[in-house]
Design a protein that fits this description.
This is Metallo-beta-lactamase domain-containing protein. The chain is an alpha/beta fold. The protein has one domain: Ribonuclease Z/Hydroxyacylglutathione hydrolase-like (Metallo-beta-lactamase, Chain A, 4-Layer Sandwich), CATH 3.60.15. About 35% of the residues lie in helices and about 20% in strands. The protein has 11 helices and 14 strands. The strands form 3 sheets. Strands 1-2-3-4-5-6-7 form a 7-stranded mixed sheet. Strands 8-9-10-11-12 form a 5-stranded mixed sheet. A hairpin with a 5-residue loop joins β13 and β14. α8 runs antiparallel to α9, α9 crosses α11 and α10 crosses α11. Zinc ion (ZN) binds next to loops.
Amino acid sequence: MDLLPHHHPVETAAAALPEPGTAKTIAPGLLWVRMPLPFALNHINIWLLEDDAGWTIVDTGVGSGKTKELWERIFAEHLGGKPVIRVIATHFHPDHIGLAGWLTERWNAQFHASLTEWLFGRMLSLETPEAMVATSLAFYREAGLDEAALAVMAERGNAYAKGVSRLPTSFNRLKEGDSLTIGGHDWRVITGGGHTPEHVCLHCPDRGVFIAGDQVLPRISPNISVWASEPEADPLDDFLRTLDRLRAIPDDSLVLPSHDTPFTGLHARLDALTAHHRDRLDETLAACREPSTVAQVTRIMFNRPLDPHQLVFAVGEALAHLNHLAHRGHLIRHIDAAGVLWFSRA
Ligand SMILES: [Zn+2]
């Protein structure tokens, strides 16, 4: 969620973006659709891959009536009379998987995802608001948020379930190293961690195209957060390791990210994301010169007003850096008598 400079965007002019409800051709049989989002991050990119039998859709948009309407326009005007045969979700976040159930039912299409992402989405969408709020409040209280912020958190209920229509009850599993043949080309599955546990990216060496999802974004760093379900997790370690592995993808690949615009210069982008988190780790360690709570470090790292949605991501991101330093032995976790978590220098 941090702003970083763009790396060689292929398209920059607003006029070059596909309008909502339309598709833009990136290459033969490869279409780009943008769906609006009700967040500060106001759109998601979706990719349509053509095969003889029909279309494969990568990611879906959030589960809303507005997104369904826009999909119907695309179906009517951009599929050349072919059906949708396959829906792939890169990961479980609502903007990516929100309409997977609706799309697969609408077209009787196959659904593909990694096991962890499908399970996570299913689990969260079925969680009761009471259980989710109770777990969240304990987590954010431990992080040192004040009562006013906790009251806003309690209002969120099950925010995940609100962003998805029901998720598919069966699926096809995608694993690291798998290949899908689409339009006569092999698309290799590369799974990554950090943003979510088993995020699916797709690489087509023949076409020189890398569908990155949220794993690599051109302008912002994807959110790397610790969540209430696993308070001592170290997702930053997973993320940095994934960035290293992605160097195996040729630097001249066309990268198709889920937000902003397609770009080239993958390796420079991997370097910039790595350097960004290394700087953030230095900043976090400096902030803990005095013992600090997660809320205090959040205020130093994100020195700007945050709405409740942004606060959730900011707290999670600050804790990701704190936990990473604790896992490496640079910081010590300590819970005080009031149940608040403190980090101090080892
Ligand atoms: Zn995401």
